[in-house]
Amino acid sequence: MSKAQETVLEIDLKALKHNFEYLKSKLDNNTKFLAVVKAFGYGSGACEIASHLQELGADYFAVAYINEGVALREAGITKPILVLHPQAVNLKTLIAYSLEPNLYNPKILKEFINIASEGKLSNYPVHIKFNTGLNRLGFCKNDIAYILSEIEKTDTIKITSIFSHLAASEDLNEKEFTLNQIANFNLISKILIDKLAYKPMLHMCNTSGILNYPEAHFDMVRGGIGLYGYGNSEEENKKLIPIASLKTVISQIHSIEKGESVGYNRAFKSNSFLKTATLPIGHADGIGRQYGNGKGFVTIKGQQAPIIGNVCMDMIMVNITNIDCSEGDEAIIFGKEISAEQLAETTNTISYELITALSQRIKRVFLK
Ligand SMILES: *Cc1c(COP(=O)(O)O)cnc(C)c1O
């Protein structure tokens, strides 16, 4: 791994392979793997991540929005792509790029059938989502008759899969709730499948579901955060490797006398002599203001340097009083030693939020 000379997000594609293979090792041989690459591949770069996973044998991809799917197609992704949260206004684009919609309520089902009929499509692959307790997106059990009546009237669409999403798969205190979601899903999907002349795939598990609920793997699983190296528990984190390392470099070192202040609004006031390093990364890059004023830290020469004062748009200042370092030296924001999960914890958030918030301004470097 090279030494950073500017702010970079280094992506270790070998670690991605390790994580993919680890998650796959939890599955039966015939269970498919859908790789979730929404939000720029959790900040890592959706096209590069998806291309690599396509080579490694991922069966399916998912994104949240249609434009994310378009970007994957333009980057040469040929595997099926499920759009988890399509908006009606973009459905023609979805079809133009052979993306597959999640249809989650009567309104979007109707709108999609209308557009599919106009376009004289036949058997276009769609995915029907049921709400089993997350109360976010999805048909309810009582909609089954409606879905069937709409499906019977048309041959424009074909249900490729029926799916649902777990609300608390990482939280074993909620095991009873989760098992109830799984039982509901089994029930609902059976009622629907019994009325169809073919058998759609079933899927329900995100990363924590893959790890905690093998009985809910069904025909396919939808792995996201685990691919990027986080497993939602200490035990699982040990088996996964964070793929992204966020590094930067010391732009300038200041000596701060007792009584001086550092940064905007003079939020930090020094009560003794200290040294600070200014780093070229700020809240516009995704290191939010909540990491300022002593909450977050970076690692320089293996030692923690707390962020002092307010986080600026393009810079942070860190306390390096006891660290032997120079301008031009590398600073690690997170990586394999200090994980994004650990940094996120300093502000009561989760790895998902920190890694997906990293701005596109940060250069991504892919290590083969
Ligand atoms: C984001 C998402 C996933 C992936 O979840 P992870 O916890 O990152 O594995 C799976 N399914 C749906 C519906 C999602 O929105």
From TrEMBL:
Disulfide bond as UniProt keyword: no
Entry keyword set: Isomerase, Pyridoxal phosphate
InterPro entries in UniProt: Ala_racemase, Ala_racemase/Decarboxylase_C, Ala_racemase_C, Ala_racemase_N, PLP-binding_barrel
Coiled-coil features, chain-numbered ranges: none
Record domain Alanine racemase C-terminal: where: 243-367
Gene Ontology molecular-function annotations: alanine racemase activity
Cofactor or coenzyme needed: pyridoxal 5'-phosphate
Pathway this chain belongs to: Amino-acid biosynthesis; D-alanine biosynthesis; D-alanine from L-alanine: step 1/1
Residues holding substrate: 136, 313
Reaction(s) the record says it catalyses: L-alanine = D-alanine
EC number(s) given by UniProt: 5.1.1.1
Isomerase in keyword set: yes
Active site: 38 (proton acceptor), 264 (proton acceptor)
EC class: isomerase
Modified residues (N6-(pyridoxal phosphate)lysine): 38
Protein's job: Catalyzes the interconversion of L-alanine and D-alanine. May also act on other amino acids.
Stated family: Belongs to the alanine racemase family.
Name assigned to this protein: Alanine racemase
